[in-house]
Design a protein that fits this description.
This protein is mostly helical and 311 residues long. The chain is built from 15 helices and two strands. It folds into three domains: 65 residues, no CATH class; 102 residues, Rna Polymerase Sigma Factor, Chain: A (Orthogonal Bundle), CATH 1.10.1740.10; 119 residues, no CATH class. It has a two-stranded antiparallel ribbon with strand order 1-2.
Length: 311
């Protein structure tokens, strides 16, 4: 979602809440000044609230955030040692336990958890600025839940990388050298379908995006995803069903907003998403450098949405 410029009334709400919550959330212990807290809150508001939001709407939204956890995450991302010590005290053991539920083996779990620390702490620089995963935490859910999702994403990313490391000999043994070439070109989907799909997927929270990617792109079972996120399988089943129905509605609305009649939009979902390549992977995949997704692996979500179009 593209950040918006906040109005004077929203800035006022941000300043008021920053003053109210700075002491309550023990921000000084994390090295977060009142001004820095206001800056953090303003960045979240500009990302999620429309430019037309007023003082009341901004205040209501800000009060839903987990401000203490948000302040801690951003202080860690900024490289504050005191904040990092607090973070480790609160979350080191929880990270390991979550990693153990995902990897199911002690050494693999510790390796998975340890690999995340450098990315969370931000040991690399990009154009002179620290790069920390914690800077993407927005406080809309719990930090513990967000960390579980990041761990699960890293586990899936490792799985993907391992799958790509197949030797040429193994490929030859499987007859890969005799594979029939794919057609050079395929029919292009209506651009309005692609735009509406991208917009709908872009609105998903990180955990929702992960669940869909793991289920539809990686072919993981509901039980595997539930284990990764530390929830019951039925919870993931309901989430997948709810997300698929919600996405279908949003994509239909998106296409109609772009000039399609409802029947035309439904036909586009019925035919194009199932039979024509849509770059779903670009919006759902966690690895930014991954190749464009296509073929049968990319059709699971489209087929499910199309099936629901009939219901």
């Amino acid at each position: 979602m593209t950040p918006t410029t906040i109005s004077a009334s929203v800035q006022s709400a941000v300043a008021e809440l920053a003053a109210e919550l700075h002491t309550k959330c023990a921000c000084e212990k994390m090295g977060v000044t009142r001004e820095f807290l206001a800056e953090i809150l303003a960045s979240v508001v500009s990302k999620y609230l429309p430019s037309s939001a007023d003082h009341r709407e901004a205040r209501t939204f800000l009060l839903t955030l987990r401000v203490e956890e948000l302040a801690l995450a951003r202080a860690c991302a900024a490289g504050n040692d005191s904040a990092w010590e607090i973070f480790l005290t609160r979350y080191r053991e929880k990270l390991y336990q979550s990693a153990l539920r995902i990897a199911r083996e002690d050494s693999a779990a510790r390796e998975l958890a340890d690999s995340l620390y450098a990315e969370l702490y931000g040991t690399t620089l990009r154009e002179g600025v620290r790069v920390s995963k914690l800077s993407s935490f927005t406080g809309r859910g719990s930090l513990e839940g967000w960390l579980r999702t990041v761990l699960a994403q890293e586990f899936v990313n490792r799985y993907r990388r391992a799958k790509r490391l197949v030797s040429l000999d193994e490929e030859n043994e499987e007859g890969a050298q005799f594979a029939a070439p794919e057609p050079a070109t395929l029919p292009a989907a209506d651009s309005r379908l692609e735009l509406a799909t991208d917009a709908a997927l872009a609105e998903l929270a990180s955990e929702e995006r992960f669940v869909l990617a793991a289920y539809y792109l990686d072919g993981r079972t509901l039980a595997e995803i539930a284990r990764m996120l530390g929830v019951h399988e039925s919870t993931i089943s309901r989430k997948v069903d709810k997300l698929a129905k919600s996405l279908r509605k949003k994509i239909l609305v998106g296409m109609m907003q772009r000039g399609m009649a409802r029947r035309q939009a439904e036909e586009a979902m019925e035919i194009d998403v199932r039979d024509i390549r849509i770059n779903i992977h670009r919006s759902l995949a966690q690895e930014g450098s991954a190749a464009a997704f296509s073929g049968k692996e990319g059709l699971g979500l489209g087929e499910d949405l199309a099936r629901r179009a009939k219901s």
